[in-house]
UniProtKB/TrEMBL annotation:
Keywords: Membrane, Transmembrane, Transmembrane helix. Residues 650-701 are annotated as: Disordered. This is Integral membrane protein. The keyword Transmembrane applies. The chain crosses the membrane at residues 76-95, 107-129, 161-179, 200-219, 231-252, 264-285, 297-324, 336-362, 382-404, 447-469, 489-516. Coiled coil: none annotated. InterPro entries: AB_hydrolase_fold. It comes from Micromonospora trifolii. The keyword Cytoplasm does not apply.
Length: 716
């Protein structure tokens, strides 16, 4: 295109937006733009006029990646149900520094991810096998038309189980399909799925099929064991243990030296599991012996309880690893030692357990299959009660921490605004109070470490209920005997958990529909999805695919092209866009880095990312980014910003001077917010509080652009 031809004397200002997304016209502050590279999901845009030159003599260009994580309504809704898988996948990237602790966290996160898949299959088997095949088509007689589904009510129990076992098998196939969906053009090499995902996918599918076989064979053996059922059960259990072993051996599926062996083993496990599933269905359907007269599917409650108990044990072990002897990140303490891994794992476990229990509960109410027989299996009752207690404890914890931290946050905020505005006219007192409150709210981010540590400790609630549930005691009976609670107290908790789960599910569905179609939802809900799908799949293969697999290489390629055509490329990244650019800089060849400068603003690189992901975005990595661009790097930050902050040095008024020898000390520049409390002469209103707003047209931003552009021209 004419406007994209080589112009050796100018500098390109490449802007990358944050997670809230933005239209190219907003990013470039121009009404008419045109796309010069990329596609409809992620592309590079310039001003429509022929020269494309913006203020300060630089050529403006914007990279819009906001549509990469999104999709159709149906796909987005499907992704909502994969939320626990996404959380477990992000958790593995939060592992701490230190080889042993990082390896232990990686193993535990992957085992937890496998357990999520197992529980997914077990809960669907509870509906298909325990509720439909055993109860509704047996003695319980559910509501019409479920009491005679497709003529199965007249069939033998084994035949009913074999036919309805196809439902969980179909659910496994749906999971695999969602996990392999392509998010870009078929011929785009940037979207190639890493080989690790193939190995993980094979392991999860093999374990899911084998667990389903164990459920069927355990029920069949309750009426008497035969050679075939014993052999099939032993082989299915061996497949499950093999899958666990592949994930439990540190580095086995990661290292290049063992990758081929791990791949072959995982594929063999899938093949064996598929053959065993066919053999199990045939054996169960053709076995004409009488079955047990138990109320529920024999052995199902024990297997569900074992899966839920194993989940809680893994979570407690993970929390113990990250809480024990927590370290420091770059000399600063906040969410240190991979604490975020325990928090996200706790969220994934709690959500999965609640969704599983809710599925069984709601299906039972809809079908009427639990009438008069004591309700759903006990493990799910204890899980739903644990979910209710966990939510109540978390709400009380957040409220208490907000109240406890308020005085300290307000005191620190008042000190900051007092230094910024030592003399305040009477008419500006209200504005000063507003600025102080905004800074105090933004500083709540500094308390997230304590909140996360306490929340991770709440895993004890789930472990306790799981341990008590293993005794086989009913929640109402136990609470009445031990705690003296009235009979309806526990039932109130179970009903509350059910209502909370329904409200959460409804919120997720609404958010999934509107997150990428409504500005408000995009700003407040879509941000969580964008952050969650940023990291590649290294723990759960059925998590949504990572858009960073495309965005980062695509950015690096575009920067290299621009560096060949122009004297320099100024990379401007707001919020999460600064992380995309930092990773892209690490991929650039040396000849390109000589023509690159970096401007970050509202950046969470240190305040959040270096502390949430200490093994990947720590101070050492950030210094490497600075060295690769020869410290042509400026970072703008505000005290009113709850997300972004300084990267190397705060530079507040009154702070000690930075080391003049250390170039990192010259990167950060604090912006006073608001610049003034009162309106300037000739203006109608006072300058607004910017907070996390990008502000590419602000004078301080344009001054930083001019400075870095001159440094690029000088280097060129």
């Amino acid at each position: 295109m004419a406007g994209d031809q080589p112009r050796r004397h100018d500098v390109v200002e490449l802007r990358v937006h944050g997670v809230s997304g933005a239209d190219p016209t907003v990013i470039l502050d121009q009404r008419q733009v045109r796309q010069v590279a990329g596609d409809g999901s992620g592309g590079f845009h310039r001003v429509a006029r022929s020269d494309g030159v913006g203020p300060d003599g630089v050529t403006l260009e914007a990279y819009r990646w906001g549509d990469l994580p999104s999709g159709t309504v149906g796909r987005t809704l499907a992704m909502v149900f994969l939320l626990p898988f996404m959380l477990s996948n992000v958790a593995v990237w939060m592992r701490p520094t230190g080889r042993r602790r990082a390896a232990a966290v990686s193993v535990l996160c992957r085992l937890l991810a496998l357990n999520l898949t197992v529980l997914y299959v077990v809960s669907i088997a509870g509906v298909a096998l325990d509720l439909l095949a055993w109860r509704c088509l047996g003695a319980a007689r559910c509501r019409p038309p479920f009491d005679g589904m497709a003529g199965l009510d007249g069939r033998h129990v084994g035949q009913r189980l074999a036919v309805l076992a196809l439902l969980p098998i179909a659910a496994i196939a749906v999971l695999r399909l969602l996990g392999t969906r392509r998010s870009g053009p078929a011929d785009n090499p940037l979207w190639a799925v890493e080989p690790l995902v193939h190995r993980l996918r094979a392991i999860h599918v093999a374990a899911a099929l084998a667990v389903l076989d164990v459920v069927l064979l355990t029920a069949r053996r309750a009426s008497g064991a035969t050679f075939s059922t014993t052999l099939l059960l032993a082989l299915s259990t061996a497949v499950v243990l093999l899958c666990v072993g592949l994930l439990a051996a540190p580095g086995l599926i990661d290292r290049a030296a063992t990758a081929r062996t791990a791949t072959w083993t995982a594929r063999t496990a899938v093949g064996v599991a598929a053959v065993l599933s066919v053999a199990t269905l045939v054996t169960v359907a053709s076995d004409g012996r009488d079955w047990s007269s138990a109320t529920g599917l024999p052995g199902y409650g024990g297997l569900a309880g074992l899966a839920l108990f194993g989940q809680m044990m893994l979570l407690v072990l993970l929390s113990a690893v990250v809480l024990w002897r927590r370290g420091r990140v770059g000399g600063r303490s906040a969410l240190p030692g991979g604490l975020g891994a325990a928090v996200l794992a706790a969220l994934a476990v709690g959500l999965t357990g609640a969704l599983s229990a809710g599925l069984v509960y709601q299906a039972g109410d809809l079908l009427g299959g639990y009438r008069g027989d004591g309700g759903p299996p006990l493990p799910y009752r204890w899980t739903l009660l644990a979910f209710f207690l966990h939510v109540v404890a978390a709400v009380l914890l957040c409220g208490a921490l907000t109240v406890v931290s308020r005085r300290g946050r307000r005191r620190a905020a008042a000190a900051i605004t007092t230094r910024d505005f030592p003399v305040v006219p009477p008419e500006a007192v209200g504005r000063l109070r507003l600025a102080t409150r905004t800074v105090a709210r933004a500083r709540f981010t500094e308390w997230l470490g304590l909140l996360a540590a306490t929340y991770a400790a709440l895993a004890v609630v789930g472990l306790t209920t799981s341990l008590v549930g293993r005794t086989g005691r009913d929640p109402e009976e136990l609470s009445r005997h031990l705690l003296g609670l009235p009979a309806g107290a526990v039932q109130m908790g179970l009903s509350g958990g059910s209502y909370l789960l329904a409200a959460l599910l409804l919120t997720l569905l609404i958010g999934g529909v509107f997150a990428y179609r409504t500005a408000w939802f995009r700003r407040h809900v879509g941000i969580l999805w964008d952050l969650g799908t940023f990291w590649p799949r290294a723990a759960h293969p059925f998590a949504p695919p990572s858009y960073a697999d495309r965005a980062v290489p695509e950015l690096a390629d575009r920067i290299s092209q621009l560096a060949e055509r122009h004297v320099g490329v100024l990379l401007c990244g707001h919020s999460h866009g600064s992380a995309l650019l930092a990773l892209a800089v690490l991929r650039l060849p040396p000849r390109v880095r000589q023509r690159v400068a970096l401007l970050t603003y509202g950046s969470p690189l240190d305040r959040l990312y270096a502390r949430l992901f200490p093994a990947y975005l720590n101070e050492e990595v950030l210094r490497e980014v600075g060295e690769r661009v020869e410290w042509r790097w400026l970072n703008l930050w505000r005290d009113t910003d709850p997300v972004g902050g300084w990267i190397f040095a705060a530079h507040r008024p009154g702070d000690p001077p930075t080391d003049p020898v250390d170039p990192a000390g010259q990167v950060d520049r604090r912006l006073r917010d608001p610049p003034e409390l009162l309106a300037a002469p000739g203006e109608r209103s006072a300058p607004p509080l910017r907070g996390h707003h990008p502000g590419e047209t602000d004078p301080e931003f344009r001054a930083a652009v001019r400075e870095l552009a001159e440094r690029l021209r000088g280097a060129g």
